[in-house]
Design goal:
CATH architecture of the largest domain: Alpha-Beta Complex
Radius of gyration: 20 Å
Length: 301
């Protein structure tokens, strides 16, 4: 049983359409990002946030600004806890004042528009360029500061257990396409570059499900450094039928110590976002990531 659905293939799948072309282009972009040497995150990238809106009308854009502003504070500082600070939430009510410019990208650009109703309902990426000086000033008023400088690239060694079907997430297998897209989105939202190991790397180092759980960080960090990365992030995820979500445990070695955190009851995309948000908190010096009781005492087996 596959852990995630495969895309169908065969003679009936050979019909070429604009939608299929769009999928191919997105796939090529995705493979380049998660399998090759990542593009470094530079300071200007940190002041750009994407949100999804339906249509491009002002009444659809304005509600997206507040949450995007809070995402921006967390991304620039590396401190996800700022999203819940009352003072930051108060700032977010005036988010438009912090936006230097914005643009839209049609998420289904490859699909023709058939009528005016379709124009209003098409999903778009709202690309917000925030004013760097204003964001920095807002952070200073909150007692925070920008996390500027080259950010480390994390190589994610993740094993997952879905109702007994166990696997290690890699950068190439078709069934892991949704996971790769979720990691890509989480990376963009947190400003942390991420790579996934390819099947050849996992095979060469004999890192199957069981071996990954017992592997040392000396080995994982060595593999990370030899594959365009810098820091190994090890993850264990187990699907919990009761909560209909994932129990996740994450580890990084820093200063000779293994730091651990986790979450319960989340979809995998949200779990990945929280994993990187908490990693950013740790790596930026903003504190220790939170973790539910029991996550860091019992490893997923």
């Amino acid at each position: 049983m596959p852990i995630w659905p495969h895309l169908q293939s065969g003679a009936n799948a050979l019909r070429v359409s604009s939608e299929a072309l769009g999928q191919v282009i997105r796939t090529v972009i995705l493979l380049v990002i998660v399998t090759a040497c990542p593009t470094p995150i530079v300071a200007d990238d940190l002041y750009v946030v994407r949100a999804v809106t339906t249509g491009t009308a002002e009444e659809r854009r304005l509600p997206a600004l507040g949450p995007a502003f809070l995402d921006e504070l967390a991304k620039v500082s590396g401190d996800a806890a700022l999203r819940g600070r009352p003072a930051a939430i108060a700032f977010s009510k005036h988010a438009a004042e912090f936006v230097a410019s914005f643009s839209y990208h049609d998420r289904i650009w490859y699909r023709p528009v058939h009528d005016e109703q379709g124009t209003r309902d098409r999903p778009h990426d709202l690309i917000l360029h925030f004013d760097r000086a204003k964001i920095d000033a807002a952070l200073a008023s909150l007692g925070a500061k920008p996390w500027i400088g080259e950010r480390p690239t994390l190589v994610v060694f993740l094993r997952a257990d879905l109702n007994g079907y166990r696997s290690v997430i890699d950068s190439e297998s078709e069934r892991f396409r949704p996971q790769r897209e979720a990691w890509l989105n989480a990376s963009a939202k947190t400003g942390l570059p991420v790579l996934l190991p390819g099947p050849a790397v996992l095979d060469k180092n004999k890192l199957d499900y069981e071996a990954l759980g017992d592997s040392s960080f000396d080995l994982l960090n060595k593999i990370a450094l030899s594959n365009f990365g810098e820091i190994a992030l090890r993850g264990d995820m187990r699907f919990d039928p009761e909560s209909l979500g994932w129990v996740s445990r994450w580890e990084i070695e820093r200063d000779g110590k293994i730091r651990c955190w986790g979450s319960r009851g989340l979809g995998f995309d949200r779990a990945y976002l929280e994993a990187l948000s908490d990693a950013a908190m740790l790596l930026s010096g903003n504190g220790e990531p939170p973790s539910p009781d029991g996550i860091c005492t019992d490893r997923t087996k």
